[in-house]
Amino acid sequence: MSVWNKNQLDTAKVESIQKKFNIxxxxxxxxxxxGIIEGKDILYYMEEDLRFQHNxxxxxxxxxVVERILSAAEEKEKVLIFGxxxxxxISATTVLFDCLKSLGIDVRYRLPSGDxxxxxxxxxxxDFAKDYGSLIITVDCGISNNQEIAHAGDLGLDVIVLDxxxxxASLPAPALIIDPKLSDSGYPFxxxxxxxxxxxxxxxxxxxxxxxxxQEIALLDLTETDGSFSVNCIKVKNLIPVARLSETVEGITAxxxxxxxxxxxxQLIFVWNENRVxxxxxxxxxxxxxxxxxxxxxxxxxxxxxxxxxELSKIKELSKIAHYGNHAPTEIGGFYNIxxxxxxxxxxxxxxxxxxxxxxxxQLVALAAxxxxxxxxxxxxxxVKQALQSINAKRIRPGLxxxxxxxxxxxxxxxxxxxSWVIVSHLNAAGRLGHPELGAELFLTQDEEKRFAVAKKIQxxxxxxxxxxxxxxxxxxxxAKSSIPKHNGKLCVVIDSRINRGxxxxxxxxxxxxxxxxxxxxxxxxxxxxxxxxxxxxxDVTAFLxxxxxxxxxxxxxxxxxxFSLKKERLKEFEQKVQxxxxxxTLSESHEGIFEVDAEIPANYLTPxxxxxxxxxxxxxxxxxxxxxMTKNVPILDAFVMGKGEKQHLKITIGSGxxxxxxxxxxxxxxxxxxxxxGDNVDILFHIERNSFNGTETPQLILADIxxx
Length: 709
Description:
The protein is of the alpha/beta class and about 700 residues long. The protein contains 24 helices and 23 strands. It has a five-stranded parallel β-sheet with strand order 3-2-4-5-6, sandwiched between helices. It has a five-stranded mixed β-sheet with strand order 9-8-7-10-11. Strand 7 and strand 8 form a beta hairpin. The radius of gyration is 29 Å and the shape is globular.
């Protein structure tokens, strides 16, 4: 019997969050139940402005990468983008290609096609060298291509690696590397997609058009209390604080006796209300002390007029970022935040084309985040929110527009679920079946008629992919179940030459869903065995595959999804080692059959207004499941079975006060007349969503479980 788990609430925490962030009690209680109690995490559920994303220059190698790309533009170099065959790789390739093309760079791209292996190949390096190329940029791959990158270096080619996969013990060289999973990356959030990494580089390149690029300036705030002067400074470069100073000066003091002199020496110093600050400086350090001051209070209002007559004490209260912090807002913090907003807004005003292109880029960044199952936390939420906002406002980028048209998605409100289950699955089909160039062509070609033709081809490939997936399951199902005991009940392994390599990852994922243990699906291409591994219950599959380094030709990936290849003649050796090492697999407790209840909704409160609460938590996805509500003692007014064959579904109507709710209960057709009847009162677990039909939206419930009262 399934378990409905509704954790007890800490009411003090609920009230605190409700008051601090001015939200309703239901939303606050869901935050607490989900462990989202820190302001820095709540921020990404409450806000959608890109101002809250992380600065690209936090990557320790970003300046070097940007300067190398700008040098390629200046020197008219030939540049090769080498991507991957999946949605993340195709999207990353597209975003970078668009950017480099706009810089006037002679750029081309290459993706692994047919039965090509994952990652940069020796052939790609050699072909590009013969074409007199000078710079290779890998996207969504490269971090494990040590040999290929060393070979490129031997041929005189520079390499930039833009990746997000787990790095090996030994990094490729010589190369400039940006990967949020590097221990010294400098980036505060490691779980962004490969396309998001590229987007960060592109954003940094756009920032080089700002007059503030690579300028180091100081923001200074000075206040006086009873003859004592409080000095607060932040040094900023590329909008990142690089140094801070806080000190107190008692009475008139020689500036040479303070830390301030060396801190400000040679700096362009921004202050708020120059006259006031200059008078205070003279009172603190004497009239002979000279400072090169710029009055931000006259500069910033040209872009942000509403702060023209405000003092910093008021501006600090406007800071949303400070609002989500653990400490009270400060004047210098407010000064820094308004300066960042000013510079960002100024760049948008000077280059409106950046705003339009960023909107197009973010639609691909969102697809990549959902396709690569990135956690719907932190800035990933901003990326997907922004993309859905522009898509639903009918500002859809070319290529995506034609594909959505083919898939009948243009007449409805698109959700993250639509992007994941419809758009991503179709785009992935092209790559899985050896035609990733179709995805890139869809997004890059300027010919509308050609985009429609490519979208049609991708649609056809997805039909083929579905059949290959069905065939793979038929081949694997018997072998799968019997393999689990052989692997200590902790691993499912399927090896079959009939499995198409393009659906091995899908098969491994389905095996995980079916048996609730990590799974491998292995097939053959020429003389090699090619495998995909998927995980669950907290187990890191890359750490497991690292133990086979001497057997593999290559391997890599993420904690829960990875791939590998080896020579066929070493397959028996591999199988034996897998069997032995499976005993060491440690899995966290299974959550199969356990439903975590986010909130109990009394029947009289089950109204369409619940949609607005659910909307707050969109986009749903990895590490942010759809809200699960519970309502008790509601009558079944009507019920009937839908569908044919094995999987039959239920369409149920329940009553709740003045509302009658349509409910769908997928794959549970046999439960009608067995567990409940029309007229029974039941307790239900459900998600709430919008059903779109003929341009009309109506709320409906998707049942997760049902019990007779």
